[in-house]
Amino acid sequence: MTERVVLAYSGGLDTSVGIGWLKDATGKDVVAMAIDVGQDGEDMEVVRQRALDCGAVESVVIDAKDEFANDYLVPAIKANAMYQKRYPLVSALSRPLIAKYLARTAQEHGADSVAHGCTGKGNDQVRFEAAVAAIAPDLISLAPVRDFALTRDKAIVYAAEHNLPIEQSKKSPYSIDQNVWGRAVETGFLEDPWNAPIEDLYTYSQDPSVPREATEVTITFDQGVPVAIDGTSVTPLQAVEILNRSAGAHGIGRLDMVEDRLVGIKSREVYESPAGTTLIEAHEHLEDLTIEREVARYKRRVEAEWSELVYDGLWFSGLKRALDAFIDDTQRYVSGDVRLNLHAGKATVTGRRSEQSLYDFDLATYDTGDTFDQSLAKGFIELHSLPSKISAQRDLAAQQNGSVK
Description:
Binding site for L-aspartate: 119, 123-124
Largest sheet: 5 strands, parallel
Number of strands: 14
Helix content: 40-55%
Shape: globular
CATH architecture of the largest domain: 3-Layer(aba) Sandwich
Subunit structure: Homotetramer.
Domain Arginosuccinate synthase C-terminal: 174-390
CATH superfamily of the largest domain: HUPs
Strand order of the largest sheet: 3-2-1-4-5
EC number: 6.3.4.5
Domain Arginosuccinate synthase-like N-terminal: 4-165
Number of helices: 14
């Protein structure tokens, strides 16, 4: 029996040509695997058939939208995950899920290796292969573009020579990756970081400069998980889909940044994540109301580490699992409602409430009925500032004695 390799198949030029290219380079039959993570676009049955038409011996399509939302996006919301404080990990969050199904499909179809369409310059090659190594360490990972010199010009010639069902006339000048959490655009004129983005880049969001009436939305969380929109119960996937429409209509979630890639280079990327931006903004404000100060302070450090681990492809690492346990514990009381005003590219929180709130009106008010004992503040300040006071006295004495210049 001929050996097999399972290819993560997107339906585009590189992975379509990659089917035959892998067969020619390795002698292995190719099983194509496509995953629906809410990327929209083509019908997945069309994608499945295209893989067969391009030479795959089998073609598998997996609907993983709910799993993606429940097991990958929800942890990101709980972690307020933003790489470099801005990027909501649009592509990084989908890669461990795809890698999991790559490994599973390889085991089910008797394959000894898996493959992906990444180049040797990006982050995704690391994310796929590190995840596969953690799940199924005996599998071999291949990358036709990187390992077998499948350049774009060669791919176009190969597709034409083999009459592959790929329409090059409609090819975008950009490299685009998308899922239900958002959309990432790079290359083309964007490679010059001085060039401003143009409106044609965006599909998940409308131009925020166009005048339109604001939209008010209330998001309900239960232990950090979005469970209702405007009082109507939703699944995490439904919450993301609804907010992509309502927040996207106001141009919310657009991001233009130069990010530090794992492979050591800087890359200019344009992102849009209407739901991701809105949900994390709401979740952070609810945490302000329900998490005590020291836990909140420490969690912000954990959030940065969590985001970097996911960006770096270490979803299945021991440290990531340990941080998940900490984050989940912090979410025990993160339940309640957050009201937001969606308008002109911004999701602005205008109200928050929770039965688990740590906000005490009687302590916070400056009006009659204040229960805060202000007389205690003087002693607290003296003790709080005592180390600084003693250190300053020492510094002053040393300066007067001339022992310190």
